[in-house]
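Preliminary data (for renewal application), NBP complex.
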Amino acid sequence: ETARIGVTGLAVMGRNLARNLARHGHPVAVHNRTAARTKALVEEFGGEGTFLPAETPEQFVASLERPRRLVIMVKAGAPTDAVIDEFAPLLEPGDMIVDGGNAHFADTRRREAALRERGIHFVGTGISGGEEGALHGPSIMPGGSAESYEALGPLLEDIAAKVDGTPCCTHVGPDGAGHFVKMVHNGIEYSDMQLIAESYDLLRHAAGLAPAEIAEVFRTWNTGRLESYLIEITAEVLAHTDAATGKPFVDVVLDQAEQKGTGRWTVQTALDLGVPVGGIAEAVFARSVSGHADLRAASRNLPGPARGAVADAGFADKVEKALYASKIVAYAQGFHEIQAGSAEYGWNIDSGAMATIWRGGCIIRARFLDRIRAAYEADPSTPTLLTDDHFAEALGDAQDAWRDVVATAARIGVPAPGFATALAYYDSLRADRLPAALTQGQRDFFGAHTYRRVDRDGSFHTLWGGDRTEVTS
Ligand code: NBP
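Predicted structure:
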């Protein structure tokens, strides 16, 4: 018997992906560096479908039907290269290697180019949804050649999450496009989580609500336009009580957030591409600040404002509006980065299709993504989601509330970097004139960097050290 597809790397993600394939009736070859994992998988879940366990790479490759489809689910980085080096010599032209790990898209581009020379399709694939998603249906973002998608697409679409019958999987674009989009997905996820965290913090410290009460607020929000997986789990976490102490769970968790790197990559890449993603950057920095225990301890006694909580009956509604508006900005920034990456690398990514495959399976799954899809359907080449009719109306409706929330945070000394940067981005985009004109003047003054004028073409320089006449440069 031959396997339709094989998975090597059987930690939580690989194991669940293999089970998902088997449950959908696809015979799957399974392999892991440490054979015990392979054995455990077959022993525990062998009844779920057809598994072909292999102890050696040779045995694994021999059990695959041709062209071979081989999925790598190992720790991203050097382990991925090690596994490629181990398996590629055993493959033939036309075979496909799918890397489902969280690889950096630049590594994927390098690997794809190297394997293409040997006639092997390398398909860097973003997979979101954690271990539950891998088992029950993740959101899948495959890159690589269009030809490889013909052979892989039906299988991947079969095991992906479905929303209204549409699979949360589509061919993103060539080489590193899939991992790039997965990276930005994670950056948006950081931003979304940070905005939710700030909402909680303000409801707690500005409105004086207890965690259980805030959980109720989030539950209500989850029945409206903010309905999403992240809002849903936020309510669950806030409603949870620590068994050992009887305190709200959120009060016994150390307040130092961790990160694995995709958020940081999103910001680093945005800097390289020249795309402003302040919402994502502030979310990464907020985690970073939280983790600097010494810095925080040294600063704890610095003075703050005199005012405490500001009770305001309508405050929760204002926070809902601020959250929705800031969320629109966060997604607009993320999609801007996707479009910039697509242009830089010639990927031709369909932004509306990305919103479509994020509607289910992944961490940022939400009703909201239907709105983004609709926005790109209405205007596929729009430079920003902010000007879409629906979003512009929501931003208009949020104006007073959004500004009140940011002002309240500043007044009572609760940090709200996500809300504040979103509003600043919004105001920057809609400004008639930005102080960048002054910046240009300064640059010309100290470095003769020249400037352009509003009324004439060309580059100019003022003789600042002399008689201050203007010269054409
Ligand atoms: P891990 O990231 O913890 O990796 C463990 C696996 O890598 C094991 O199978 C291990 O084999 C194998 N491995 C290592 Br480490 N070094 C190896 C080497 N040199 N040669 C061969 N195999 C090697 O597993 P995971 O949490 O299942 O994640 C797998 C991938 O999926 C990662 O890239 C991750 O970033 C990505 N991802 C994870 C999630 C999630 O929620 N966990 C979500 C989305 C994507 P061994 O058993 O012999 O040690």
